[in-house]
From TrEMBL:
Belongs to the exbB/tolQ family. Keywords: Cell membrane, Membrane, Protein transport, Transmembrane, Transmembrane helix, Transport. Residues 95-217 form the MotA/TolQ/ExbB proton channel domain. It is found in: Cell membrane; Membrane. Signal peptide: none annotated. It is a multi-pass membrane protein. This is Putative biopolymer transport protein. One of its GO terms (cellular component) is plasma membrane. PANTHER family: PROTEIN TOLQ, TOLQ-RELATED. The chain crosses the membrane at residues 29-56, 138-161, 181-202. It comes from Kordia algicida OT-1. GO terms for biological process: protein import. The keyword Glycoprotein does not apply.
Length: 231
């Protein structure tokens, strides 16, 4: 009985050791994939770093652009109504925001037809939107390209696995083939992870940018309404 228990314990120990041997870390999966897998994972890592840098840089820039004093337009209204255009321009110059720059552009055109003022504000607004969306399109490119790059790595891995099977005359070990295949699949997983992160970051920035654009449009309308008020 004692001998049987010892045999069972030894068998359980062997099974545990075998299960531990089959456990691979992410690093081992990448390294075991060969030079092609390492290159593709490295490219995806660079794309992830670029995407994260652009996301946070644009996020902070957009947040800074959306900050504006709630009394800004009231002060502009008081200065313009009283004819203090220089004071209104000074206030706009001291406020570093797209809304202030659009308002300053409109103030500098006071005295000209409203159509010309509106056109100048629209042109300035287009420039401000371009500044807000700087490099954001790169995130969209990464979101689309990363999964395809990862899938490319998987296809290359599968080709190499089947090439090994073909050159071995059908005598290739299934264990080595399966190991090569699931290692190749890691590039697809990595590509999807990078693509998802870039896609979420891109859409979040688009939403934030739209809010700033709506804020700019609302303040531009308020400024034009101010000019239309009877003296």
């Amino acid at each position: 009985m004692l001998l049987l228990q010892s045999v069972n314990d030894a068998a359980n120990t062997d099974e545990a050791a075998e299960s531990l041997e089959k456990t691979l870390s992410i690093y081992e999966l990448v390294i075991n994939g060969g030079i092609g897998s390492i290159i593709i994972i490295s490219v995806l890592f660079v794309l992830l770093a670029v995407a994260l840098y652009i996301y946070f840089e644009r996020l902070f820039a957009i947040k800074a652009a959306s900050r504006i004093d709630k009394n800004f337009m009231n002060q502009i209204r008081d200065n313009v109504s009283s004819g203090k255009l220089d004071a209104a321009k000074m206030l706009c110059a001291q406020t570093d925001s797209p809304v202030a720059r659009l308002t300053e552009k409109g103030i500098s055109r006071i005295g000209k037809p409203l159509e010309d003022i509106n056109k100048a504000i629209e042109n300035a607004g287009t420039l401000e939107v371009y500044k807000l969306e700087k490099n954001v399109s790169i995130l969209a490119t990464v979101a689309g390209a990363a999964p395809m790059i990862g899938f490319l790595g998987t296809v290359i891995g599968m080709i190499l696995a089947f090439h090994e099977m073909a050159t071995s005359g059908g005598q290739a070990e299934m264990g080595s083939l399966a190991g090569g295949i699931y290692t190749a699949m890691t590039t697809t997983v990595a590509g999807l992870i990078v693509g998802i992160i870039a896609y979420i970051g891109y859409n979040h920035l688009v939403v934030k940018t739209d809010k700033v654009v709506h804020q700019m449009e609302a303040n531009a309308v308020d400024f034009l309404d101010l000019l239309n008020e009877p003296v």
